Amino acid sequence: MQNTPEIPIRVRFAPSPTGDLHVGGVRTALFNYLYARHNGGKFLLRIEDTDRERSTLPAIQVILDGLKWMGIEPDEEVVYQSHRIERHKEAALEIVRSGLGYPCFCNPDELTAKREAARAAGKQFKYDRTCLRLYASEIEAKKAAGIPWAVRVRVPDEDLRFQDGVHGEVKIQGSDLEDFVLLRGDGTPTYMLAVVVDDIDMGVTYVIRGDDHLLNTPKQILIYKALKSPVPEFAHLPLILGTDKKKLSKRVGTTSIMAFKEMGYLPETMTNFLGLLGWSPGDDRNVISLAEMTELFSIDGINPSGAVFDEQKLRWLNGQYLSLKSWADVREAVMGLMDKVLLEGGLQAAPTDDYLPIAWDLIKSRITLLSDLFGSAAYMFKDPAKYDEKGAKKHFGVSAEGTDRNVCRTVADRLTTLAADFGGLETFKHDALEEIVRKRAEEWGVSGGALIHPLRLSVSGTTVGPGLFELLEVLGRETVVRRIRTAMRWVQAGN
Questions:
Q1: CA–CA dist 290, 321 (Å, integer)
Q2: pLDDT tens, residue by residue, 19-75
Q3: Whole-angstrom Cα distance, residue 6 to residue 205?
């Protein structure tokens, strides 16, 4: 479709608020958004909230909050499908008047009996058009008697086909389809009818949605034609797959966009990752900004095969973005995480406002999630509650299999001396700390690593992290000396 002044591009995202906002839905919203922005068009949002029991206000708010967090917001007022029921009914009756639809008085019990009879005969059930054969007088008599009636569309026997932007030509044999229902007997519209009427009234020119709607499209094109409305173009996005190559299910693992936010992922990460999930700008890049995606986006770049959601790659990507963030960039998100950790007892007290930016600058290139600050990097804010088992065996001489008393005594003596050295320093800075350690290593005839590794384990409980002397400086004299002495006593006890 060419973007011309006569036919401005208008696309939409139309989620049902019946659960969390799934990453597959967010990707669909993102691709619609990118297509609109690339072509100077409009991105619209429609909430398909006709399931009144499940479409609660909190469920709707989850969608709005998730899209806002991702920076994907509509250009016009949100449309609520539940507000448009009368318009859907009007459209169904218009199709009846056109002769392309007809009233169906078959009650559910009759249809169930026919369906069971077909199954018993080993046949696939297809509505037999009982009501299509009714005379006008019979129809009026049934209406006058107050018999509930649905509206069905008459499906032609010919091939139903359309050109999909991702999959090419899609074809369904009309004779294989039954005359499907547009309006139920209780007056409520079906999805098939409502989505077409809403897209017509919203002026949608390109429908970009998931593969699960691919075979609905030929049926919906019949409705467009019955309503004498222009048919939009279509592009159906491939499924997002788990690492097992099966459909990424809401019931398996983390799939909610807000859950990823709570885990400490950045919106830029999710935009980057989902944008490259099934779409390529024409090269092998892994990192791309929203502005770059907008400039390069095209339907032609969408791969018709399913894309694998690799959470390890997502974590790596998040780490790349985190390493570039200043404290000001992440302060609000980190403070929100910290409040939760404090409430749950993960921290006894909040770090000072002066300490947090310094800690962030030291650790940001070492974490992949914001939540790692209070997880794998919690030693920045509290004394270690335990020591890495392999590290304790190698550097302390302590293990569950047995304790090497000679190693323990040597390590404890060295830690005692280093704690005293550090406590007596005039300035607790990187260079002075390193000088002490190097001098003691030379005095004791050991490598620097023989002291550095036990020190790191003592102050952090881990064997990996930022440069030791930078870490010691940031933690400060009181904390470092206290933690070394605690480790020394633990080693002496042989635990």
A1: 13
A2: 789 999 999 999 999 999 999 999 999 999 988 777 888 889 999 999 999 999 999
A3: 12
Please list the active-site residues: 250
Q: Is the pLDDT of residue 5 over 70?
A: no
Would you state the structure tokens that stand for residue 118, as one six-digit string?
């077909």
Name the nearest CA neighbour of 418 among 435, 406, 404, 396.
435
And the tokens for 308? 């694998």
Q: What is the pLDDT of residues 111-151, one digit of tens each?
A: 999 999 999 999 889 999 999 999 999 999 999 999 999 99
Architecture of domain 383-493: Orthogonal Bundle (1.10)
- Written as one letter, the residue type at 143 is K
pLDDT of residue 440: 96
Burial of 12 (0-12, 13-18, 19+ CB in 10 A): buried
Give the residue ranges of DSSP H helices in 159-202: 191-201
C-beta contacts of 155-164 below 8 A and 24+ residues apart? 155/179, 155/180, 155/219, 155/222, 156/222, 160/218, 160/219, 160/221, 160/222, 161/218, 162/217, 162/218, 162/221, 162/231, 162/234, 163/233, 164/214, 164/217, 164/234, 164/235, 164/236
Burial (Cβ within 10 Å: 0-12, 13-18, ≥19) of residue 199: buried
pTM of the model: 0.90
Helix, strand or coil, per DSSP, at residue 20:
coil
Return phi, psi of residue 39, to 5°. -100, 10
49 contacts 16 by C-beta, under 8 angstroms = yes
Q: What is the pLDDT of residues 317-368, one digit of tens each?
A: 999 999 999 999 999 999 999 999 999 998 888 999 999 999 999 999 999 9
Q: Which two tokens stand for residue 59?
A: 């469920």
Domain residue spans of the chain: 383-493
Residue 160 forms beta bridges with which residues? 172
